[in-house]
Write a structure and sequence with these properties.
Its EC number is 3.1.1.-. A motif (GXSXG) lies at residues 68-72. Belongs to the patatin family. A motif (DGA/G) lies at residues 221-223. The chain is an alpha/beta fold. It contains 15 helices and twelve strands. It has helices spanning 8-11, 36-53, 71-80, 94-108, 114-127, 134-144, 186-193, 223-226, 230-242, 277-280, 285-289, 296-319, 346-361, 383-404, 406-412; strands at 23-28, 65-68, 82-83, 86-90, 155-162, 167-172, 203-208, 214-220, 259-264, 326-329, 365-367, 374-376. Strand 7 and strand 8 (214-220) form a beta hairpin.
């Protein structure tokens, strides 16, 4: 396939899992400006890896798969796309992602102040997307350039949804060898997965397939299908194991003791309980699409899809006695403006930074399969401590693979 002649070991920054003990997965939820929360968490994780292995290491050096939806898809691209000036290093260090959000979110989601501004926003949202997306498109294309999916430095998985075909489209580096039409520009993929209904316009583009024909894509926010992409990532890896990909030939698809999964949410407002059956019973189309500055229908399906994944993975990892291999970091106690996906005021963005930093000091929580709420584990370990432990696992795994990899031995000789 043109443009994809490099082998996996040449593209990826981590040796294949077959030389190690674990399959490592990082998953990042969607959530608009709340992407600042996982950006803060990931900056901390990368700093812990740097303390162990040196300041030049990046997250892409440790994870077999990085998956992200919507704003998480943009984070995935930033952390795995090669730098134009150094193609074996990622475009962004994790510590720089938060600065990107703080600088550009106010221009992606420009805020109109006062009663007249609110009225203008309301009228615009009744007749089309709340934002035109032009600045988002420009900055994403500027940063990602002509980089295509196959070039990422870790396996990247970004869910989207095709509104014309009414089905999910999973852009995955595992799949590009099967069909060139999926080897799209990362910029197009990011714009597509971020096209949240009512907020940003759907994204159309076309890409050439193996026969010289063009495949059309009519994409909206991947959160419609998988706002929490952790299960999509595990499924993609499972397909490789079943398909006997040599990079995974020593693994069983049901051995969750050998999966190491970090899943990071963008926060939710469950504790606020801002909707109820009485008010929803009176909503028509407009009510479901606009209520007190939020979009209940979008809130419902994105929260539902994210929670269902966490329910499933929590149950499976517990059933297979591998719960220590699955870390979900999520704050379900957001309230007020901090729950917004598009409030880009300086005050709110800085508040989201603080929420991310405070989340690091909160105890590790797991979803209660009965109530649906996250509850602290018995050990009362903080998220920061858990990430330090995971950093040790990741560092040990990387060293093991490098010690056993024939490519490493060839480089030494």
């Amino acid at each position: 396939m043109e443009g994809t002649t490099r082998t996996t070991s040449q593209i990826l920054q981590i040796r294949p899992p077959t030389y190690g003990n674990l399959i490592t997965i990082l998953s990042i939820d969607g959530g608009g400006v709340r992407g600042i929360i996982p950006a803060t968490i990931l900056s901390f994780l990368e700093s812990q890896l740097q303390e162990l292995d040196g300041e030049d290491v990046r997250l892409a050096d440790y994870f077999d798969v990085v998956a992200g939806t919507s704003t998480g898809g943009l984070l995935t691209a930033m952390l795995t796309a090669p730098d134009k000036n150094n193609d074996n290093r990622p475009l962004f260090a994790a510590k720089d992602v938060r600065s990107f959000y703080l600088e550009h979110c106010p221009k992606i989601f420009p805020q109109k102040r006062g009663l007249w501004g609110s009225a203008q926003t309301l009228m615009k949202s009744l007749n089309g997307p709340k934002y035109d997306g032009k600045y988002l498109h420009r900055i994403v294309r500027e940063k990602l350039g002509d980089t295509r999916l196959h070039s990422t430095l870790a396996h990247a998985i970004i869910p989207t949804f095709d509104i014309k075909r009414l089905q999910p489209v999973i852009f995955s580096t595992f799949e590009v060898t099967k069909g060139r039409y999926l080897d799209a520009l990362l910029s197009d993929i990011c714009i597509g997965t971020s096209a949240a209904p009512t907020y940003l316009p759907a994204h159309y583009f076309k890409n050439e397939d193996e026969g010289g024909r063009f495949q059309e894509f009519h994409l909206i926010d991947g959160g419609v299908a998988a706002n929490n992409p952790a299960l999509v990532a595990i499924s993609q890896v499972t397909k490789q194991i079943i398909g006997q990909n040599p990079d995974f030939n020593l693994f069983s698809p049901t051995d969750y003791r050998r999966f190491l999964v970090i899943s990071i949410g963008t926060g939710s407002s469950k504790i606020e309980q801002k909707y109820n059956a009485k008010m929803a019973a009176e909503w028509g189309t407009l009510g479901w699409l606009l209520h007190d500055g939020s979009v209940p229908l979008v809130d419902a399906f994105t929260q539902a899809s994210g929670d269902m994944v966490d329910f499933h993975l929590s149950a499976v990892f517990q059933a297979l006695h591998s719960e220590e291999n699955y870390l979900r970091i999520q704050d379900d106690k957001l309230s007020g403006k901090e729950t917004s996906v598009d409030n880009s005021s300086k005050k709110n963005l800085n508040n989201l930074v603080q929420i991310g930093e405070e989340l690091l000091q909160k105890p590790v929580s797991r979803v209660n399969l009965e109530t649906g709420l996250s509850e602290p584990t018995a050990k009362r370990t903080t998220n920061a401590d858990a990430l330090r432990k995971f950093a040790e696992f990741l560092s040990e795994e990387r060293r093991l693979r490098e010690s056993k990899s024939p490519q490493t031995k060839e480089n030494i000789h």
